[in-house]
Amino acid sequence: MELTGLILGSAIAAGTPVLLAILGEILAQRSGIVNLGLEGAMALGAMTTAWVQLATGSTVLALIAGSIAGALLGLTHATLTVVARIQVLASGLCLFFVGKGLAGFWGAPIVGRPLPGLPSLRLTVLNEIPFLGPAILSQDIVVYLAIAIAAVMWWVLFRTNLGLLIQASGENAEVARAEGVPVVRIRLLCVTVGASLAGLAGAHIVLGFSHTWLDGIIAGRGWVAIGLVILARWNPIYALPCAYVFGGLIAIQLNAQAAGISISPYLLSMLPYIVTIAALTAAHLWSKRTAMPAEVANAEQ
Amino acid sequence: MRRLISIANLLFALVLALAGLSLALLLVGRRPDTTIISLFDAAFGSRLGLSETLLRTVPVLLCALAAAIPAQSGQINIGGEGQLHLGAIGTVLALSLVGNSGLMVSTMVLGAILLGGMWAAIPGVLRMRFGVNEALVTLFLNYVAISLVQYLVHGPMRDPASHGWPMSEPLPPAAILTPIFGTRLHWGVLLVLVVALVIVAVMRLTRTGVELRTVGLNVRTASLVGIPVRWYWFGSLVCGGMLAGLAGYYEIAGVQHRLRTDISLGFGYSGFLVAWMCRGQFWLLFPLSVLVSGLISSADSLQIMSGLPAASADVVQGLLLLFVLLGQSSLAKWEQVRAVRQVLQRERKYSSWN
Q: In this predicted structure, what is the pLDDT of residue A1?
C-alpha cells in the first residue's frame, strides 16, 4: 500500500510538467497555431530557472523567470507565424532547436550544480484520507497550480467570451477576422501564454524533480505533450489523466527497484514513448471524428 | 537566377545567425570575433580540421537525405537520429551473425540499412494505415533507439574485456574502413557522395521522383491521377530510414569501431535542419552539409580546448534555419507584391486606352 502511494505520488509529481506543457499546447492549438517548439521552450525555461535560483536563491523569482523565458520563445514563434507568415511547423521546429541550443549554451556553466527543491505543501483536510492521502497530497505548489490552471483554462475556453474568440480563431481564421475577431492579437496571446506554461513546466522539472540542470533533461517530454494533446482531445480537463498516466510510467521507472522489478532501467525508460505511440495509434483507430481545430488540421497538410 | 537568390539568402542568413551567436557569446562574456574566427579556423583552417569536418559530413549528409526524401512527399522525418542508432545496432548485430568472413562487410551494410529502414517503417505504417502524425512518432522513436543502444552496451552486447565500460567488442581489423590521407577520414566519404548523387538523379530524372514530388505538392491531385499516395509516404520514410541507417554503419565501421552510447553528435538532428534549409533544392544539400559538419566538429574540438560549449553549434544551426526561412518567406512575399503591381500597371495601361 505504501508503495502504491509512493508510485501514485511520484506519478503526479512526474506528470505535472507534462500537464503544464499539454495545457500550453492546447491553448496555442485552440487559437489555431501548432507550437512544435514546446520542447525548446521547456529547455529554456528549465535552464533560466536553474540560473535564477542559483543567482538569487529565490524560488518564486526562479519560477517566474522560467515562465518568462518560455513566453519569450513563444512570442517569437507567434510573431514569426502570425506576423511574418512563416510556415507554422517549420517555425516551431526551428524554435525547438534554437531553444534547446540556447539552453545548452547558456546552461553549460551550471550543469550538475545542485538546486534546492520546492517545499511540499500538505493540504490538511485532504491529508486525512487513509493510506493514499499523505503520499499523494503532499506535493509542491506547482502541482496544485497546474491543476488550478487546467480548471481555469477549461472555464476560459468553454464558458467565456474570450474562449469563444479563441475557438473562432482556431476553427476558421478568415471568417473570424471578417466577423471582427482580433485573430492576430488572440493568437499572439495564446501562443505566448501557452509557451510560458511550457517554461513553467521546465522550471518544475529542475526544481521539483531533478534538482539540477543538465543538457537534454527535458528528454522529449515536450514532444510527448504535443502527442498527448491529441489524446486529450484539446480539452484541458482530459489533459489531467493523460499527463498523470504518463507520469506514472516515469514513476514506475524511478521506483522499479523499490517495487522489485528487475527489468533493465534502459528498457523501462523506453516505456513512456512506446505507450504514447500506442495510445496515439489507438486514438486514431477508435475515433474517426477528431476534435482537432480546423486551422491546425489545415496547417498539417 | 533562382540559385543565386537562394545562395544569397543563405549567406545573409549565415551572417545573421553568426550575429545571433555573437549576442549569445557577449552575454556569457566572451569575445565574439575571436571565438567565431577560431570556430571556422578549427573547421576549415587546417588539414586535420578539414578532414574531421569531412568525416562528420558523411553522417550529416546521409541524415539530411533521410529527411529530404520524405519531405518531398510531405512527410516530416525527425527520426534520423534514431534510425542512425538502429543502423549502428544493425551493423554490430550483422557482424556477430556472420563473424569474420568474406561476406562480412556487405552483411554489415545490409544489417545497418535493414534496421534503419525498419525503424522508419514503424512511423511509415502508422502514417499509411492509421494516419498517425509521423513527425511525432519518428521523434519518440529517437528516444527509444538511444535507450536501446544504452541497454545493449550495458547488457547483452557489452564487451567482457571492457572492464565494465558500456561498449561492445571492437570490430575485427578487416571490418574497419581504411583511413585515407593519413587522417581519420575513410573511403566512405567518396561512396556517400556517389550515393547522394544517385539519389539526386533519381529525384530529378525518374518518374518515381516526379510522382514523389507530386504527392508532396498536392495529395488530392496525386491520388486523382492514380499515384498510390500512401505507398509513397511509406516508401519515402523507409528510404530515409535506410540512408540514416547507412550513416550508422559508417560511424561504426569508419569512426568508432565499436558500438558505444555516444555514436552520434546529434547528426540526425543536424541532417534534418540541413534538409529543411534546402527545401527540396537537392544541390544545396552538399555545401550546407559541409558547413554544418564543420560547425559540429569545431564546436566539439573547441569544447575540449577552450571550453566553448558544444551547444554553440546547435545555436548557429537553429538560427541559420530560422533566418533562411525568414528570408524565403519575405522573398515570396516580395514576389507576390511584384506580381500584383505588374497586374495593376497593366490594368492602368488598358484603362488609358479606353
A: 56
Q: Residue A121 phi/psi, 5° resolution? A: -100, 130
Residues of A in contact with B150 (CB under 8 A): 266
User: How close B282 gets to chain A, by Cα (Å)?
Assistant: 18
**Using CB atoms and an 8 Å cut-off, which of residues 135-194 of chain B contact chain A?**
135-137, 139-144, 147-148, 150-151, 154-155
Name the β-bridge partners of A212. Answer: A114
DSSP A79-99: IIIIIS---HHHHHHHHHHHH
Is the alpha carbon torsion for B11, B17, B23, B27 positive or negative?
negative
The distance of B151 to chain A (nearest Cα, Å) reads 5
At B271-324, the pLDDT tens digits run 999 999 888 788 889 999 999 999 998 888 887 777 778 888 888 899 999 999
pLDDT on residue B346: 84
Considering only CB atoms, A220 lies closest to which of B140, B151, B326, namely B140
pLDDT number for residue A263: 80
pLDDT tops 90 at residue B120: yes
Chain A nearest CA to B353, separation (Å): 36
Quick check: A83 contacting B, CB < 8 Å?
A: no
| List of residues 6+ apart from B119 with CB closer than 8 A | B79, B82, B83, B86, B141, B145, B241, B245
Res A130: pLDDT: 59
Closest Cβ opposite residue B140 in set A84, A109, A276: A276
Q: Within a 10 A sphere around the Cβ of B255, how many other Cβ atoms?
A: 18
Strands (E) across A30-154 are located at: 120-122, 138-140
Give the single-character DSSP code of B162.
Answer: G
What is the rounded CA–CA span in Å between residue B230 and residue B212?
11
pLDDT of B311: 84
Q: What is the pLDDT of residue B176?
A: 81
Average confidence score pLDDT of chain B:
88
Given a cut of 80, whether residue A198 has pLDDT beyond it is yes
DSSP string for residues in B33-45: HHHHHHHHHHHHS
Note which residues in 266-285 of chain A have CB less than 8 A from chain B: 266-267, 269-270, 273-274, 276-277, 280-281, 284-285
Residue A202's SS3 state is helix
CA distance A26 to chain B (A): 16
Q: Is A223 in contact with B140 (Cβ distance < 8 A)?
A: yes
Residue A191's pLDDT is 97
- Map residue A114 onto helix, strand or coil: strand
- Residue B310, Cβ neighbours under 10 Å: how many? 21
Q: CATH top-level class for A2-110+141-300?
A: mainly alpha
Among the partner residues B122, B219, B322, nearest to A94 by beta-carbon distance? B322
Tell me if B277 sits within 8 A of B288, measured CB to CB. yes
Cell 583552417, located at residue: B45
Long-range contacts of A10-13 (CB under 8 A, 24+ apart): A10/A247, A10/A250, A10/A251, A10/A254, A10/A255, A11/A244, A11/A245, A11/A247, A11/A248, A11/A250, A11/A251, A12/A136, A12/A139, A12/A143, A12/A244, A12/A247, A13/A139, A13/A140, A13/A143, A13/A208, A13/A209, A13/A247, A13/A251
pLDDT of B44 > 70? The answer is yes
Predicted local confidence at residue A36, as pLDDT: 93
Mean pLDDT lowest for which of A208-212, B96-100, B128-132, B233-237?
A: B96-100
Residue B274 in grid coordinates: 540541413
| A144–chain B Cβ distance below 8 A for any pair | no
pLDDT, tens digit, 9 for 90 and up, residues B183-210 = 778 878 888 899 999 998 998 899 999 8
